[in-house]
Amino acid sequence: MSIRYVLIALFFLSTGFTKTARASDAYVVKEDPIEVSKKIITDDPLPWTAEEHQKILEKLGPVGMLGQMDKNYLLLQSPWLGTEYLQGAFDEGVNSIPVEQLLDLLNLAANSPQQTSRKLAEISIKQALREYDKAFQIAASLKGSSTVAYDDAIDFLQSRFGYLKVKTAKNLLDESALADNAVLDKKTGKKISDRFKNIRKKYTDEIPLTNALNEVKAFYTLLEDVVGGLAKVEPYTKFTQTITELNEVQLRERKHWRSALEITYPDKGTVWTIPDEVSIQWTTENLPPEKTIKFYLLRDNTVIEELGIFKNTAVASGIKLNKTLPRGTNYRIMGIELFPADKFHTAKFATPYFTIDKRDPNTPPPPVEEILVVEEKPGPEIEEEVMVTEEVVVAAAPPVKQQPEVEVEPVEAITETSIPDPVVREEIAVEEKVEKRTDFGGRSITYVKELEVNNKIVKINLWDHGRKDGDIVSIYLNGYPIVSEYLLTYQKKGFELKLDPSKPNDLFLYAHNLGQFPPNTVSIEIIDGDASENIILNSDLSRCEAVLINVKQ
Fold first, then answer.
1. What is the sign, positive or negative, of the torsion defined by CA atoms of 87, 91, 96, 98?
2. 245 and 98: one domain?
3. Which one of 31, 124, 248, 445 is CB 3.0 to 4.6 Å from 16, fit for a cystine?
4. Mean pLDDT of all residues in 94-121
5. Is the pLDDT of residue 48 over 90?
6. Cα(482)–Cα(503) distance, rounded to whole angstroms?
7. pLDDT band at 363 (very low <50, low <70, confident <90, very high)
8. Does 26 reside within a domain?
9. What number of helices (H) and strands (E) belong to the chain?
10. What SS3 state is found at 14?
């Protein structure tokens, strides 16, 4: 039986999965991670004894930190491993590495396999020691009488494999010196050179971790085909097989202990009425009662009010809404787990849209326009000869961005009967206003930025902003699609835009789904010659965000 099946079997046994518990796929037993951790220590006590811990540290040295290039070597631990695991090795928030560092690593894998294998072993030992030491410190509390936090138990379960990884990496270190050095022929050298050129062509400065793993996998496949480089080092192939199987079980366990949140009320048919108090109900998985959840009220996917932070008690009552909120059917509640045990995953949930109404037991509900809170904007400025009262400013048409501004004389004490009609300077001619697009396909359009460029042909790059979660989008220019139903990734996708110099050009994002974490969000880089501008656009199934682009005349 291979180590893969042994480890998987141990995983299911250690986490409490039995034939009875898995009788139905819809029913999953959620265990107490503290009790599961204690059972693991009881069943296999050797790694968690002070003597074993000290012996390993004396043999391999103290626990140390990994440098940036060291972390890049971990891509070679298993080219088939997902980036989710690698997040544990890279600094939080690091999603890419320099392209040249990746090429240096691949070059060493092809031309210096002994050196690369030994270096990988040393770095893997460092990383495994960090995991093992972390688990050992928590195990000391688990074995004692002291109270262990839920989060600490999760940390133990996710890092306890460090003990086996230390031994696996030590074997690679001992055997690397016996490996054969590869001598690549001219034909193979040409293939490798061509692949390096292709990578440089696809990426400029940085390469996302997901793409880097794909490139490592393709490169290692090439080495396997020619039976050269690192693929010829037998200790390395044994190491990658074992480490991959360990990491697969570790990832499977990480997902098993992940927290989940679902808000069950309000739902699609809910109507909340101001000024009545409201409540929120929810269910969770792998989230203990002492954990806290923060809830927000959203309107069109924009946070407009924080509703509070509550313990995970399944219901929060007595919540008062802001009385100035307008009526509407476009409200949602979003909940987010605070201080997650798994720093690479946060439980969150957004409800379907529901309705907020108003009730006044004594008088009819006020019209919507009286409830809207609109920030008063200054009226258009008028030349000095014109005298204006406050009433005239309120009645004047809202200012148009394209019109030049004119000056206003300070208001004197003037009676209402003495107000002449406003007189505007003759030279200020109001050009015919170009109407902005305000909706498309039944969705509203909101403009977040207005740009002026020098060239009528510009380039754009677009990529997923934040977490990659399956967002599918289209990009429209002046109502015509330039990108249709594109699955966003961290890799930049480039296009050319031909702008119309005679009018403002609207570029907007259209969402075809909400992905795993709504709304859909895309980063767009607009390149105008040597200048560039980065913009973030959001879209959901009811609205689109846009940017207005003008060509300098």
1. negative
2. yes
3. 31
4. 89
5. yes
6. 18
7. low
8. no
9. 14, 21
10. helix
235 and 89 share a domain? Answer: yes
More confidently predicted of 428 and 442: 442
pLDDT at residue number 97: 86
Cα distance between residue 75 and residue 525, in whole Å: 29
Q: Which amino acid is at 185?
A: D
Question: How high is the pLDDT of residue 388?
Answer: 32
Pick from 214, 188, 206: which is nearest to 101 by CA? 206
74 and 101 Cβ atoms separated by less than 8 Å: no
State residue 443's pLDDT score: 82
CA distance 288 to 311: 9
pLDDT in tens, 416-434: 333 344 443 444 343 445 5
pLDDT higher than 60, residue 261: yes
State residue 337 phi and psi, 5-degree precision.
-65, 135
* Residues 281/265, Cβ–Cβ less than 8 Å: yes
Of 383, 400, 426, the residue at which a domain comes to its end is 426
pLDDT at 468: 65
> pLDDT tens digit string along 493-548?
888 888 988 899 999 989 888 776 677 788 888 999 888 888 888 888 778 899 99
Q: Could you give the CA distance from residue 209 to residue 213 in angstroms, rounded to a whole number?
A: 6
Is 443 or 331 the better-scoring residue by pLDDT?
331
H-run or E-run covering 278: strand 278-285
Take residue 491 and report the two structure tokens written for it.
Answer: 């890799």
Could you tell me if 461 and 390 lie in one domain?
Answer: no
Q: Does a structural domain hold residue 9?
A: no
Question: Same domain for 138 and 82?
Answer: yes
Using a pLDDT cut of 90, give the percent of the chain over it: 27
Residues in the chain, total: 553
DSSP of 193-255: HHHHHHHHHH-SSEEEHHHHHHHHHHHHHHHHHHT-GGGG-HHHHHHHHHHHHHHHHHHHHHH
Alpha-carbon distances of 211 from 118, 140, 243, 491, 549, rounded to whole Å: 25, 40, 21, 8, 32
Number of domains observed in the structure of the chain: 4
- In the DSSP assignment, the letter for residue 349 is E
137 and 116 part of one domain? yes
Question: Residue 522: enclosing H or E segment and its boundaries?
Answer: strand 520-528
Query: Which of 136, 329, 127, 113 lies closest to 229 in space, CA to CA?
Result: 113
Q: What is the pLDDT of residue 211?
A: 86
Range of the domain at 267: 260-370
Whether 220 has a pLDDT exceeding 70, the answer reads yes
211 and 348 in a common domain: no
Q: For residue 12, tell me if it sits in a domain.
A: no
Residue 179 belongs to a domain: yes
- Of 256, 277, 310, the residue that ends a domain is 256
Q: Which two tokens stand for residue 69?
A: 């290039």
